[in-house]
Amino acid sequence: MTRIAMWSGPRNLSTAMMRSWENRADTAVMDEPLYAAYLATTRLDHPGLDEIVAAGPTSFEDAISACLAPLADGIAVSYQKHMAHHLLPDMDRSWLDSFRNVLLLRDPRRVLMSYTKVRESVTLDDIGVPQQVELAQRCELVVDSDDFLTDPVGYQREICRRLDVPFDSAMLTWPAGPRSSDGVWARHWYSAVEASTSFGPPPADPPAPLPPHLAPIVDQAVAIYNELRVNRLTI
Question: Could you read off the pLDDT of 161-170 as tens digits, one per residue?
Answer without folding.
Answer: 999 999 999 9
